[in-house]
Amino acid sequence: MLFKDLYIGNAEAPMDIRVTDGKFTDIAPNLTPLPGEGTVTDLAGKMALPPFVESHVHLDTCLTAGRPRWNLSGTLFEGIQCWEEYKPFLTKQEVKERVNRALRLQASNGIQYVRTHVDINDPKLTALEAILELREEVRDFIDVQIVAFPQYGILSYPKGAELLERALELGADAAGAIPHFEFTREYSVESLHICFDLAQKYNKLIDIHCDEIDDEASRGLETVATLAYETGMGDKVTASHTTAMHSYNNAYVIRLMRILKMSGINFVANPCVNVHLGGRADTYPKRRSMTRVKELTAEGINVSFGSDDLFDPWNPLGNANMRDQVFMGLYTGHMLGYEEIVNSYRFVTENAARTLHLGDAYGIAAGRDANFVVMDAKNWYDALNYNAPVLRSYRAGKLIASAAPAEKQVYF
Ligand code: FE2
User: In 321-334, which positions are buried (b, 16+ CB within 10 angstroms) versus exposed (e)?
Assistant: First the structure.
């Protein structure tokens, strides 16, 4: 099948794309249909991108805002309390039904790859088992990567390390940790050693909830980077949030940046939720609490954006549209230079694919799986500015989601 007249990424000239047996086989201008080629789709100069990648979300908690009660203070810690009160309602069926709805919402916005953290501080591992099953059921439409996430800590929750190991045995793709939430600094460091040891034992990726607090003394990141460097795990490791880095003094950051670069780790910022949950202990001025995206990017370190939460105790809004994260991230990070705007789709496409360690499975190039989306815009600048919908989302060349172009009328 042939797709005609698409601007791929920031390309200045349109291309045609040939797909054969679910793979990209030819990407060039003015391709002629082959005899018996089948469908030829004219995409009229729209923008094509590889599918959006959600690099940090908590699907187990999604779509639960207000149940059993609303998080009225808007703090991270009241959010954790609300979630604790919701946990008795969890059943495998309830989780699967809810997460299924969230995955469809994501698919409607062109997302085909999702890294979800799943709370494993639950002796029954109910949510984990549900999402492990769902991961297999939706595999043909969306790739779900699961991080075993110890919400209360590895050492500060009964049998936390055993639950983490059990989750990895059951099939979680990555090991998590939450060093800033452990009872003590000593537990914080030790929990990271346990996380790295287990990830290596089971050959898994790592994604740490790292320093998600406005405490300039929260220094889990230096330990994560050093362990990634010394173990050689490098870019298999991701530091999520790192909001304390917003508050670090510059002299410390200059020293820290060296090991961050040496380590090769990835960063995930969650712009909407970081701004929403951050600065809550401040009077005025109130901190933005987003990690140093602009400076990390300038140093060549991989940074992607995630949503973190979709309509749950930590975020009462959320529509699973990655554009919103880019929009907020650019404003919050002082990144509205022209080049920064036109390249910003990378935070939720190729950078995020690096975070998920997708390798050559991802991207619009000959020989790869024919997964791509078509925006209702000619370029990313317009797509971002006018919140253009994803007109079509293709998976192995097959249409899996579509939207009608938005139409507005003005009567004067
Ligand atoms: Fe998170």
Answer: bbbbbbbbbbebbe
